[in-house]
Amino acid sequence: MAQWATLPATLLGAGVAKGTSPLMEARKDHHELVRETRRHTYDVTSEWRKTRRDLYAGFLAVLTEHRNELRHLRARNTIL
Description:
98% helix; 1 helix; mainly alpha; single chain
């Protein structure tokens, strides 16, 4: 009797393995898609931060330049 139990158990195990394999592949594909989406979102966010940082640095440079020009103009007016 025990010999006959191994055959159905083996067939059941093979069926479970065959059935879960596509599910595991689908899950792996889903995780890869999620990873790619997160990576893309990070890249876009990172690019946005870089652009914003560059724009702000340019703004500060112009602001500093104008502040220095105003200082020079004020210094000339007090001397004259």
